[in-house]
Amino acid sequence: MTDIIIPLLLTYFIINTFAFRFQRTTLSISRSILNVGKAEFQALLTPVWIGLLGWISQALWIIISILLFLQFGWIQALVFLLYVFMGTAFFDSITPLPSYNQCFNIIEKNLKKGVNKSKNLLQKIGLEEILEKIQTIKKEYKIKNK
């Protein structure tokens, strides 16, 4: 069973790190524009596939917790759960991937796609305004365009 747990742990680690960093980026943008973190606004900035990564991450930590318990007992499962609920935020502060530049680029692509798809003029104008504010935030925080 160990040969299943290790790849699952690595997969969880990569997916969770990406989803967590992206969520923190959208939260920062929401706070910069609205002065409050608003879930609806963050959802507007988030592509569907990243939302799915968040759900996959949650399913993986449940599966991994059960497998760790079955293979090694409660202690290892509890250590993993401590990482899930407390260690993720710490690790986000030291990991370089994904970069904030990558997160901003994904957000900008998602908004540009929304602008191009939108048939509603007011919605299109609103998305363009949000896009301009995001580009201003990028310059303010000196996030490089690559």
Could you describe the 3D structure shown?
With 146 residues, this protein is mainly alpha-helical. The protein has one domain. The chain contains six helices and no strands. The protein has helices at residues 2-34, 39-45, 48-72, 74-94, 100-117, 121-140. It is elongated, with a radius of gyration of 18 Å. The termini are far apart.
In short:
This protein is mostly helical and 146 residues long. Helix content is 85%, strand content 0%. It has one domain (2-140).
Runs in which pLDDT lies below 50 for 5 or more consecutive residues are none
Give the structural class: mainly alpha
Q: Please, what is the average pLDDT?
A: 89
* Number of self-contained structural domains: 1
Helix content: over 70%
Strand content: under 5%
Rg measurement, Å: 18 Å
Order of helices and strands: HHHHHH
Report the end-to-end length measured between terminal Cα atoms.
42 Å
The profile of the biggest β sheet is:
none
Q: Tell me the number of helical segments per DSSP (H or I, 4 or more residues long).
A: 6
Tell the overall outline.
elongated
Total number of strands: 0
